[in-house]
Amino acid sequence: MHEEFLRFTDNLASKFEALVGQTPATNGVLPASFRGSGVYLFSENGKRLYVGRTRDVRKRYGEHTRPSSGDKKAPFAFKLARHATGFITSNYRPGEMSRAGLMLNRVFALAFSESLERVRNMEFRFIEEVDPTRQCLLEIYVSVVCRTPYNDFNTT
């Protein structure tokens, strides 16, 4: 493997262990130590569900959990609502199955609101990583090792 790439990956395992080994925030209030940029992990009843990365963890956590967050600011809640309603497949064409269309659907909008509340009540962990390349690699590493069901890295 190329030595430059190895330098980016040399601390992934230790960062992962620090992330999953910490006591999670569970009440919607982040500890003062959760500041800056890095990788975060949502879990529920000990099951690791979703990993993401951010430049501002406090802002991003609010976007994931605030009742006023929309579908574009709270992608995890949107995915949970998709699964709850059976609208699993993404559709990027305008219409009732698009993101905007689903948010106009009464049943889906209720599921999305309930999903925001569910996410707010989940266990939340965060590990600082300021380098954007390492951050990206750590997000993938955590997702693969934890087998987070709501991360798929698919593109269309």
Automatic annotation (TrEMBL):
Domain spans labelled GIY-YIG: 35-140
Organism for this UniProt entry: Mesorhizobium marinum
Gene3D superfamilies (UniProt xref): GIY-YIG endonuclease (3.40.1440.10)
One Pfam family here: GIY-YIG
Protein name: GIY-YIG nuclease family protein
